[in-house]
Amino acid sequence: MQDTSAAAALVAGGSDALTTAADETAATAAGHLGDFLATGTLTAYDEAVSSLSRVRNLAKLAQMAHPDADVRATAATVQQDIDKRLTEISLDPAVYQTLAGLDLTAEDAATRHWVGRVLRDMRLAGVDRDDETRARVRALQDELTATGQAFERTIASDTRTAEVPPSALDGLPDDYVAAHPAGDDGLVRITTDYPDYIPFMTYSRDAAAREQLWRLNTMRGFPDNEANLRRLLELRRELAGLLGFATWADFVTANKMIGSEQAIADFVARISDAARDRSGRDYAVLLERKRADDPTADTVEPWDNNYLTDRVRAEQFAFDSQTVRPYLEYTAVKDGLMAVAAQMFGVEFRPVEQPVWHPEVEAYDVVENDAVLGRIYLDMHPRADKFSHAAMFTMVVGKRGRTPECTLLCNLPNPANGRALLQPTDVRTFFHEFGHLLHQIFASAGRWSGVGGVSVEWDFVEAPSQLLEEWVRDHGVLARFARHADTGEILPAETVVAMRAAEEFGKGMSVRQQMFYAALSLELHRRDPSTLDIPAVEKELMELHTPFRHPAGSKFHLSFGHLNGYSAMYYTYMWSLVIAKDLFTAFDPDDLLATGPAGRYRQTVIGRGGSAPAAELIRDFLGRDYRFDAFQAWLED
């Protein structure tokens, strides 16, 4: 096994370390590629691509999380350079012809599936086009990488601050108020970072202050990302056209489960229509609750949503999320989540001391029968210029003889700043992202890096993480770690029942909100960017799929980070949720920690990585094709 501290040490290292690693890896990969062209040995091809991808992944993580600006800048340059090299391989006719000429009849199904997928993706990249076309594809891919990095970097660095009177904290928990004292000018400063933003929007009784913070949040990325996003759309449109597709949305779905641009549009319409009536009922309840405070109110604004939803849940469903926060202390949740995963999948998480890129980062080995399956890193708290959302970042894709490594970047309250009490939604996010970690670690025992980790179709990737969110709704699971920070009392079962009932409220609006995001990502990539009025499209789709009017001046699209990584495919979250709800039917709701279903799920789904089409993995687990029924039942429950 390789030194599992080397990858994190490289992220933690300075600019010179990253540059040196990139140069050395480029030379090594070139050697492997030469061996492959000479011998047709798949191992050489796999090593050429995986070695470059490894350094690219580490550079991406450094760009998103390293505290030093110079290192982040170097990491961006390294990532661009490696992306160029990977593009060159995907566009190399000699590599394609060698792969296509291999006799795979004696190989296993996973190998045949992998090579077939590589050949398909190389054709989609343009390997079979003429020299002039391939040269233009290279140039477009290079500029896309640089522009996408600029788009993400702008979002990550743009934390905005609202200055509000201390009275705006009325309704906020005591620990939040204590952490936000007034400055010398008598004003309190609230940032758009998640640990500030979400509680404030949920609990502050001051509608004007909520509006101020909401508007600041929707202006992140302005003005720089106006040019960055426009250029992304132009580049993608041109690239898709070169490769024979009318739009980027049609191009990018050609190798996904959904299959086409029109299928996305149909799916979005189906889900949005299914949730229409429930969303309308949800909105009517919110408006009625708002009128209890303001009898003249005739509309609910976007900045009212979280606050009014929380009030309805507290007053009509006897569930106040503030009363749950003391049971959800960060460290206890973290330890409890690991204990749950350990029991379900028969592993343990052993803390490891090693060099990391920030003192708050924690490392753990995932161990089974004293064998290290992989290493995970938790970088869980906000800081300046760090990735501002929540995601799993692959570091090393494993295979036989190579240990996988991956990192969670989240922005949860920090125990170093006092009691770090989480919202129930924070816990759900933690479980969700941990599902990605487990997928990455367990799917790394095959022969090839190319089928390891989360290398399934992109629109299935979220299903395993969304499935794990179900465990947050179970009292038997929560009782393992949800204990009052002061008294040690276990979260009462009746509180969990109330929480589940309360969570059902607002479901219709939430689903249609997700369809707004999905429709926005689709429409920006199926319309002609030369005539596209992006703010107008945002307004059109927000008012089509949600009950809210679009406030003048809102520029949500400029901080919608998924427009870079996911481009037209934000639909994948809901597509995966439909599948996740169906997968959940195979588990025992009375014993979610039972090892039988969990073990079978690990063996047939997340343990197989990209060794087969996702639909086949699902069929092997469920004993049938996946269906819409469980999602529909959940939506109507």
Automatic annotation (TrEMBL):
It comes from the Bacteria. Its cofactor is Zn(2+). Keywords: Hydrolase, Metal-binding, Metalloprotease, Protease, Zinc. GO terms for molecular function: hydrolase activity. SUPFAM superfamilies: Metalloproteases ('zincins'), catalytic domain (SSF55486). The keyword Iron does not apply. Binds 1 zinc ion. Its EC number is 3.4.24.-. It is an enzyme of class 3 (hydrolase). Residues 200-633 form the Peptidase M3A/M3B catalytic domain. Belongs to the peptidase M3 family. PANTHER family: PROTEASE M3 THIMET OLIGOPEPTIDASE-RELATED, SACCHAROLYSIN. This is M3 family metallopeptidase. It comes from Hamadaea flava.
